[in-house]
Amino acid sequence: MVNKLVLLFGIILFITAQNLCAAERLQVGDVVAIELTSKSKPALETLSAEGNSIVSTWEISKEGASYVSVHFRHFLLADEERIVVKNGAGEEQYALTGQGKEGSRGTFWAQHVKGDTMFLELWVPYGADMTSSRFVIYEEAFGFPLGTERELLEDDEPQWGHFRKLACGANDRLHAKCFETSHPEYYENSKAVARLLIQGSWMCTGWLASSDDHLITNKHCITSGDDALNTDYEFDAEAPDCGYSQGQFQTPGVVFAGGEMLKYDTELDYAIVKVNGNPSAQYPYFEFDPTAQISDGQEFSQAIQDTPIYIPQHSLGYDKELGLVSTHPDDIALGDAVCHVLAFDWAACTAFGGYLEVGYYCDTEPGSSGSPVVSSLTHQVISLNHCGCNNCNCHNIGVPINEIYAEICEDSCTCGIWGCCAD
């Protein structure tokens, strides 16, 4: 018992100042200035099959891009008008009406489409005035080409060298699909996790935390209400089979576009967003582990020490993976080749001191920020993954869920969501 206490309270997690810096979200694409309006000459103009609409089509493309999105400065359509957005293969499409995205007032990043081509089709009733301004696009975003994202990241020292989430030794992460049969509960629970595309060119991971569309991620990922509005929350972004190759934003999922920021904290590095479109009607959510109710940091640390864990995540913007298996000697020494909570230390990623962060060797990488760290015993969340370091001498790091839970329960705006308001 003495040895365990020394392990817990003797600062096991050894992180020097040069090993770690402030957490950052991952860049996954480039944003380019453009001036495209409803008055710009379309690539194609036709009469609809029914003969009652003029259909004007514009093409936006960049060879090899993994996805395409556009930023509307102005968007206002009359009744019976719409813009249909399609990808080049015709496999994805959705329609925009009125002011476009819910809550946007006509200025927003449009939901991205996969591949290197986006088509915009403006449908206007035959005989309508075609000279009025219906939309203005002033930026376009192109995802890094499939297969190049890692090389681009390794060339970016601030993103890779200082922010790297460690996958030391063997990379033990596997496609979520690999666990569908062997660990069905793990697989089903992971459906609560979403891939986030923020402001057209940044990404992180997030997870549903209630039955009413509340999603939790890192504050360094979604930094503002404008970020929350201009994020694509993509669920079911999974490879079709266990042996499928990996690529950034490769497999389409189900996208819910936009949301509202409800609460955040910079030092605890969490953000709570109410996602548009009711994803909770289709997907499960993670609950907080009972240990979240332990207010004392040392007691919380003792309660979760050596707990087996797993981390559903979208590292590097890839299709969903599970960090569950671990071949690290410290994990194997506990009896199973799976991830465990191994260490604690004073906060150093987004705060300095104040609370004990959770350490583990479960493999993560840039883009895994905002993932839930889930107890394999209860299948409930015990930490929020948010940081790592640039060598293999320290752990990956999560914010303890009891600290986040305490803040949520002290706030009258959020305590009712999780039923923890003070009497």
From TrEMBL:
Residues 1-22 form the signal peptide. Gene3D superfamilies: Trypsin-like serine proteases. Keywords: Signal, Virulence. Pfam families: Trypsin_2 (PF13365). PANTHER family: LYSYL ENDOPEPTIDASE. This is Serine protease. It comes from Fibrocapsa japonica.
